[in-house]
Amino acid sequence: MTEEKQAAANAENQGPTMSLQKIYTKDVSFEAPNAPHIFNEQGQPEIKLNMNQKVTKLDDNTYEVALTATVTCTVVEKTAYLVEVCTAGIFSMSNFSEQALHQTLGVYCPNVLFPYVRQQVSDMVMAGGFQPLMLQPVNFEQMYAQQMQQAQEQAASSTKQ
Fold this sequence. Notes:
Blueprint: H1 2-13, E1 17-31, E2 46-59, E3 62-75, E4 78-94, H2 98-127, H3 140-160
Helix pairs in contact: 2-3
């Protein structure tokens, strides 16, 4: 009986654990709608980046985190290229508090996936015949804080109505 109590005590004393099971490409797309004429356009390229993430609970302790980057490059108001990359990871997580779990899924996991997304975007842009594009680092902690603030504001405004 004391062995069972010891095992239960050990389980309670364990801190949060996480393991990365897999990283994979979920979706990729590249379009150069104005090629080949866009290669002759003179002007400064304008790059727009849109980042999105989605968390899907697979079972009690396993989550899929998908990070999507959409990059649009325009030259003289014409689309040079449009790249969309979605890279996902499967993360096993246990012994996390609800808040720590939510924050880890929203900040740490996208940080793990971002270098893979950045490399795929760069490779696709170069394969499309354009100048290399290296996405700048993204502050996922700031993005998470903004999302939490927006959610609080929405909750507060919905209770006032």
